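Input/output pair, single chain:
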Amino acid sequence: MIENSGKQYMRFKYTLSGMFDAIRIMTIQQQMIEQDEKKNKLEFFIKKYGMLLTLEDVAEVFKFKTIGAVRKAHARGVLPVNLYRFPNKTGFYAKVEDISESIEKMEMSKPVQTSPKNR
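Output:
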């Protein structure tokens, strides 16, 4: 009787070990997929805008109606990316990596729930 329960325990142990290995593999695969998606987004933005985005580009990406709205958001500190100025060059610019990262963070955050009254 005791010998039989020992065999059952060993089968359970190996089954459990296999399940943990499968979970570990699935987690690694999911991380690889997420890294590929992040890389694809960055490549998309680089192809479309280059390494630096102008205020016009930032307005387009974040759906601001005007460049003035981008400037105002930046002044208030609510623009989701940093803007940079270069010496002897007019205007502000955003790094493509910052834009891609900001979009990535939006996708990882939970969507805003609206109450039935507001619909």
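The first strand starts at residue 52 and ends at 54. Residues 2-108 form one domain.
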